From TrEMBL:
Coiled-coil ranges from the UniProt annotation: none
Alginate lyase domain mapped to chain residues: 80-300
Protein name listed in UniProt: Alginate lyase
Localization, UniProt: Periplasm
One of the record's GO cellular component terms: periplasmic space
Annotated keywords: Lyase, Periplasm, Signal
Domain Heparinase II/III-like C-terminal: 378-637
Alphabetized GO MF terms: lyase activity
UniProt KW Lyase keyword: yes
Amino acid sequence: MVVSKFKIIALVAWLVVSFLGAGSLALAGPHPGLTMSAQEVVAMRSQLHTVPKAKQAFDDLQVKTDTSIELGVIVPKPVDAGGGYTHEQHKRNYQLMLDAGLLYQLSGKKRYANYVRDVLLAYAELYPTLPLHPKQKEQSPGKLFWQSLNEAVWLVHTIQAYDLVVGALTEAERNLIESSLLRPVANFLSEGQPDTFNKIHNHGTWAAAAVGMTGYVLDDQHLVDQALFGLDKSGKAGFIAQIEQLFSPDGYYTEGPYYQRYALMPFVLFARAIEVNEPQRAIFEASDGAILKAIETAVQLSYNGLFFGINDAIKDKGIDTIELVHGIAIAFEVTGDTQLLDIAKQQNHILLTGYGFSVAKALHEGRDTPFDFRSLQLRDGQDGQQGALSIFRHGQGSKHQALVVKNTSQGMGHGHFDKLHWLYFDNGNEIISDYGAARFLNIEAKYGGHYLPENNAWAKQTVAHNTVVVDEQSHFNGDWRVGQQHAPNIRFFAAQDGIQITSAEIAAAYPTTTLRRTMAMLELEGLTHPLILDVFKVNSVRAHQYDLPLHYQGQLISHTLKLQGAKQALSPLGEQHGYQYLWDRARAAFPAGLAQLTWLNDGRFYTYSTVGGTDQQMLFAMLGANDPQFNLRDQHALIHRVNSAHDHVFVSVLETHGEYNGRAEYTVGAQSNVVGLAVRELDKYTEVTINLVNGHQATLLYTEQGDENTQHQLDSAGGQVQWQGHFVVLKSQSKQSEQ
């Protein structure tokens, strides 16, 4: 096996510690040498008192770990599913072993190493006796846990703990732990489950990281090579292939932000181990720096500290999650980018590792600079040709506006049927929402912590999202394997002063039907906040019912429609594809011209202006039908329905305005500024005109054809217009308003 400079440095550091004296601390050979080196241990021990937050983290960890150690070694026989006692105890054990290992290295107190030893010996006695878990999941069951994914997570943490204490163990103890526990778990995760191990998926990433990190600690190059290049070492699978295939050229992970966050941990920890042991592989440069891009991109995929809740997302996860704490710290050590320190400050979690201490020290020195949350397009797919996620931002700080346009690929089995879907955030809140996942993670009392049945039946269905539903059927008829074969085609994207805009289309979501959506964040004079403009075109060879849902968060305040509401009994909107979960609260005929609905959220008003016509309705729906176990959250939606049409253009504007202060008892700007909205099709061009109460008018002219260099000329209502690229914005003001 190649001996890296980190191994040599570790040996030198061991000699230094031995010469200086370290109490009962024993550093043998090249250990620690996995994700933290002996040199880093020496530096931390000598400098810990100079960085107050790191010293406080050390003191807090000692108190917490000492309390747990007093309870003794608890290694129960596995019986519970996720969230149950034994499941959670085995999770506590791997974290406690890692914490105790760190404390042993930093304090030199042998009792921490002895505790890790005793837990490992208990596992070494238990593991060879275990069959598959009694409550095994249908895919990839484990032994200690209900699925082997958790087993891989356990080994990733446990092998780090072993690396930290192995120098304090006798040869007999090492042989027993390695032969009865560490190698059997690594073999179970690799040769024992080849389909999972070779899978290009976050489960495969965790397994590869666990096996490869074990290989480094046990000095077993065979395990390392299998982890890097797949079981047959051909390179068709394994960690390198996962880096190349799971991230787009922009660092976007195909399953979405929630799973990008989860997948980051094995990527960053194994990459760190590779860098320590085989730096010549330049792992952080692999695939054009994919891992470092993915860390920065994960931060961009958030608003006010929480990840965008698309696909199977549990929506309380954010940038302070432990996976990203490790990711930010490792990325800072590699790049020295001080913007990452801004995120570390917000995370407020000091890691007692070499890279964690580097962050703590840099923060203590005040080296952090503001992180640049910016507007950008994140391409999806290995080649960047599987659609994209567009993020448009306006303003600064935690209460800025953000428009997220989801024109991505399916996202494999965790993806939702929501092509050309969007979300909107403002004032620190999610205003136009995505349901995310229907799951109470690790709450065993709620369906054992599994995804609820309603996750497939409601949360994934198209009507649960802000995009068009044809004939009350989900995109791809609700089959993710079909959806995985098709992604939207991005027609154009731009983020410039005054307007941020993107356009995409897909023709495979429904047979013989094409969906095209153009969305823009448009700044206009006289308005405090930008308008969100939405033009959704549907074209089909035959007539269909078209529904465009809008899932909004807030209390409905006013509307311009004449409602016919249900007074004595409620009925579901439909029978399948998610409609069965929506109560039909009220309906309104949709007259030609402008219709407006306003709601209030956290002291701010939001008005949705849209254009109706004959044979159209607005449906007011509420989630909760056919849900006797109360598994779903209480949420409201508007559904703009076109009863029958071949082709249709939905056009709408969302305006953010005004303020309501209940404490001071005042209201300002509660009325919308939008007084007119119109759309015209002009050959290959689309013209959208917005009129404001102050007399200002804005016209957006755009085309999906050509590129940014194409020259256009058009005779419009305002005269002849010439421009280059996909779009132009024309602004004018009435003479009356000028006076």
